[in-house]
Hints:
The protein has helices at 25-40, 50-53, 56-64, 75-83, 98-107, 120-133, 156-166, 189-212, 228-232, 250-253, 343-347, and strands at residues 20-24, 45-46, 70-72, 88-91, 112-117, 137-142, 171-177, 219-222, 239-240, 270-278, 284-287, 302-303, 310-314, 319-322, 335-339, 352-357, 360-366. By secondary structure, the protein is of the alpha/beta class. Helix 5 (98-107) links the parallel strand 4 and strand 5 (112-117). The strands form two sheets. Strands 1, 10, 11, 12, 13, 14, 15, 16 and 17 form a nine-stranded mixed sheet that branches. Strands 2-9-8-7-6-5-4-3 form an eight-stranded parallel sheet.
Amino acid sequence: MYQLPPAQPGMSESEVETPALILDLDAFEFNLDTMARRVAGLGTRLRPHAKTHKSPVVANLQIRRGAIGQCVQKVAEAEAMAWGGVEDILVTNQIVDPRKLARLAALSGIARVALCVDSLQHVALLEAAARTAGVRMSVLVEIDVGSRRCGVPAGEPAVGLAKRIASSRHLVFAGLQAYHGAAQHLRSAVERREAIGKAIAACERTVEGLSRARIPCGIVSGAGTGTFELEAASGVYTELQAGSYCFMDGDYAANLEEDGKPYRTFRHSLFVLSSIMSTARPGQAVLDAGHKAVAIDRGLPTVWQQPELRIISAADEHARMEYPAGRATPEIGERFRLIPGHCDPTVDRFDWYVCVRAGRVESVWPITARGGMQ
């Protein structure tokens, strides 16, 4: 069921129907501007991941600040971005359904679309789709740089796959996909640097092999919000796929920077606004945002700027919040901003961003690719 907008421009935040997804525009724009400045000084290109925000509005704001395009995980996300005006899209995933590949090939009329493979079977499927559509599809070989998920081994296995792509009349070898997702949430800077060091070595080994085989490698794409400066400094990565930086969540905020202090490069801009619905038990209040409203796979949400309040459990439609003795009992209907532990799946629970500045609703943006599982 498509949700009606929970707010209208001009409302105060206290009038927004809850639960609602709040985007604090001042913090959000600070994050976009900060990343744009940092990347401009690093000598690499920024291709943010749209699986975080799922919105062409956000994508185009990033592109206005210098991003070259967007990453996506799903065909439906690629369609939402292309239909929303994004002209350069990388599907950082393996797509195997011929109907989905036909949909990607059809997007070539309005956008540059590339996707990833890690097997000869993938190459054959892509080749058939491109031949049927009468287009040439750009392909990246995904290498496993430490996540132990998708990806062919670095070095000669990846070079062999690239040779097969380069020999095709219907495909173009575009480069390497080398994202180390597991490294993004290693807490210490030392751990992240060690993990990314191994990823860089794997990329270098593969690029050298491609050079010996005389296969140009125009793209080495990877990196995330937790490590992007490491990949950028490597001299081998050409694109950065950081996505969560625009919102920040509780899990990324738990990372430590080089000086050992909590992560502070970007600000929390994404919140789930929730209302008190019950105070029947002493010392406890119940909010109307359970795990249908906020993802808990990376831990329970925290209460914005009120550390004395603690979310202790979440059910489908309820979250229990403890408050200390001596604090006034929260009032029925009182609003609290919750910081999600994981922004990507939290966004996927909503149809609208309620964009707020200085306590008033400035605009409401559709989350166009929400629920795009195909």
